[in-house]
Specification:
18 helices; 7-stranded mixed beta sheet; Immunoglobulin-like; 28% helix; 26% strand; single chain; 2-enoyl-CoA Hydratase, Chain A, domain 1; alpha+beta; Pdz3 Domain; 645 residues
């Protein structure tokens, strides 16, 4: 307790009201009332038979040995052999009987270790009932600030109804069950499967107080003893019990063709929904209002959205000026076109002189939603990322069984002769969809990332950087580094009617997921995998105390500085008229010195323009159905506007 003041350290004991859940917001109160303490919850655990355990191991072997695209990379980068570890577990099961097999939690622990060893949040073992779809939580969040000589860990959110002396946002955690907090974070980080150091540390901090039991064993301790320096300057200790509750609701994902082009960390999705339930339940009220057909609602200062669980949009005042700020919480949406339309509508209501796109903590979702959004922020043609299967006989059978996967088949068949490890690299997002809407925002853009950006969000950040849309401002050294398309074990059962299929239904609600296709970057980094590497930000910002406690004040100020240093472009088609077989355009422009005009994608005119208004006449427009105007500054394409005729 070296940071305590001269006052005597106190022991807070249990919170002022141990039944704090009864004071939670009305919209979640009944749901949280069903929460149980850890010891009670575990009384119902442990019903897998020996045969069911063997089935789980056998199915894991199929996925990792024959479907897992990153297996060669993971063996090389992390010096692991998950397939051999599974074979050893299989052998141990053969030597056991129902009477001698170890407790179920030991089996789950061994399976989780195998999947975690590859450090891939796409590839995981999901525990069966009663763990599936459950969240373990403590009633507060802890975040790290690094603006001092050493990291410090502050309480940033406390559940409504929970209180203890001096324990509120700004209280500083010093020890965690007697372990210095920095060391406790490092130990916790070692249990998680992040692909790089930044990702593991970020997960280690988050999981101090909220965990998905679908992906991880329950906490070993029934309670934690939190040593903290209170906001009143007094050092105290607080005992807090873990609670277990069902995940609230479920984020709808795509179906049909888009269902197999997901890039998502499902654990992050569950934790994000848990945080909404525990700390911002008004978002659930907004969702329910939209679902009931009511007009969208919003919190003070925010733009009302038809997708309140997906977007938060507002104007922010910084020392460098007033800018737009849109938070994308998830790409896990049922309709990528509706997602892009709502994004465009929201940014159209924000200041047009600069936009902060904030994707921190976004666990991904629809690859189509992520890659189709990029076009709205740039004049450049979007090249979607490419994806590869690993070449195995089973993957070839799967691709032959689905017309959707036909493009990968020729290269996989050829691999029988060439011995190539991977298939051809082909996009998941059709290129025409990635470019159908065109640029919608013409001011400068900054993208804010952290180490909990994963999968489709990694791809969004990579595309943003690879197409030079703007500056990537990161609060961690990397994004989460999830570079793959993920399929669930149930997808193989339901979507691919293979003769003598090796896939079997899993018992008791257990599940498994696997990275099936790896992604490769484009542009200057063409061919570089995202997995384990992630996106390194162009500019690094270390989160400050003001960021954690005052609405990201310093982070937004830094983003504002970056935006203010960039020119604001304007390119509008103010008027269109046909006359004598020609098309006459009146344009308004700013910070553009030349425009090229295309009719039905064929070149029609190229003229120099001043800032302000310019009239351009394009001959041969009698049958033209669309006009596209591209604006250049010093020879670089900086703006593009398309209009149907």
């Amino acid at each position: 307790m070296g940071r305590a003041t001269a006052e005597t350290a106190e022991t807070a004991g249990t919170p002022d009201d141990p039944d704090y859940l009864k004071h939670s917001a009305e919209v979640v109160r009944d749901h949280l009332a069903a929460a149980t303490e850890l010891d009670t919850f575990l009384e119902d655990a442990g019903t897998l038979t020996l045969e069911q355990r063997t089935l789980l191991v056998d199915q894991a072997l199929v996925l990792l040995e024959q479907n897992y695209v990153h297996l060669p990379l993971k063996i090389a980068m992390h010096a692991v052999n998950p397939v051999q570890r599974l074979r050893l577990i299989r052998r141990q099961l053969e030597q056991q009987t129902p009477a001698t097999m170890p407790p179920e939690w030991i089996f789950h622990s061994e399976m989780s270790k195998v999947f975690n060893s590859v450090r891939d949040l796409h590839t995981n073992y999901q525990l069966p009932a009663p763990f599936a779809k459950k969240i373990a939580f403590l009633p507060f969040l802890v975040e790290e600030t690094t603006d001092g000589p050493e990291p410090r860990f502050l309480v940033t959110l406390v559940m409504q109804g929970f209180s203890a002396p001096g324990f509120e946002p700004g209280a500083e955690i010093t020890h965690w069950s007697g372990v210095p907090i920095g060391q406790a974070v490092e130990l916790n980080a070692g249990r998680f499967a992040g692909g790089n150091v930044a990702a593991r540390r970020s997960r280690g901090i988050e999981s101090l107080t909220v965990r998905s039991l679908s992906a991880h064993l329950p906490p070993f301790e029934e309670w934690v003893t939190v040593s903290y320096l209170g906001t009143d300057g007094v050092q105290r200790e607080l005992r807090v019990f873990w609670k277990i509750v069902d995940v609230f609701g479920e984020q709808a994902g795509p179906d049909g063709e888009e269902a197999l082009v997901l890039g998502v960390d499902y654990e992050s999705e569950e934790i994000s929904r848990a945080k909404v339930m525990l700390y911002v339940p008004h978002v659930i009220e907004q969702q329910q209002a939209v679902a009931a057909g009511e007009s969208p609602r919003s919190a003070a200062g925010e733009i009302a959205s038809t997708m309140p669980e997906v977007f938060t949009a507002r104007s922010v005042e910084t020392p460098s000026g007033n800018f737009g700020h849109i938070r994308i919480h998830t790409f896990m949406v049922p309709d990528s076109r509706a997602f892009v339309d709502e994004f465009v509508r929201l940014i159209g209501t924000l200041p047009q002189n600069g936009l902060i796109v904030d994707v921190r903590d976004n666990g991904g979702g629809s690859v189509w939603a992520a890659e189709r959004t990029l076009q709205t922020l740039t004049a450049r043609h979007i090249t979607p990322e490419s994806f590869q299967f690993i070449n195995t006989p089973l993957n070839l059978r799967i691709c032959r069984s689905s017309g959707q996967l036909d493009p990968w088949v020729p290269s996989m068949e050829q691999a029988v002769e060439t011995g190539a490890t991977f298939s051809a690299a082909l996009p998941l997002t059709p290129e025409d969809l990635a470019n159908e809407k065109g640029q919608q925002y013409f001011g400068p853009v900054v993208l804010v990332t952290n180490a909990r950006c994963y999968s489709a969000t990694d791809m969004f950040a990579a595309g943003f950087q690879d197409h030079r849309i703007g500056t990537v401002l990161g609060t961690d050294d990397n994004t989460g580094a999830g570079g793959a398309n993920v399929w669930e074990q149930g997808d193989f059962l339901a979507d691919f009617p293979l003769a003598s299929s090796p896939y079997r239904p899993l018992p008791n609600g257990a599940g498994m997921r696997v990275s099936i296709r790896r992604s490769l970057r484009v542009g200057d980094r063409s061919g570089t995998p995202l997995e384990d590497l992630g996106v390194v930000p162009d500019v690094r910002h270390r989160m400050t105390r003001r960021d954690l406690l005052e609405g990201n004040a310093d982070l937004l100020a830094r983003a504002g500085e970056l935006l203010a240093a960039q020119p604001v472009r304007e390119l509008n088609i103010a008027n269109v008229a046909r006359a004598d077989g020609a098309l006459r355009l009146r344009l308004t422009t700013a910070n553009i010195d030349r425009v090229d005009v295309y009719l039905d994608r064929r070149p029609g005119a190229s003229v120099d323009v001043p800032d302000g208004q310019a009239d351009v006449t394009v001959p041969g427009a009698t049958a033209a159905r669309s006009v596209q105007v591209e604006g250049y500054a010093v020879g670089e394409l900086v703006a593009s506007r398309t209009m149907p005729l």
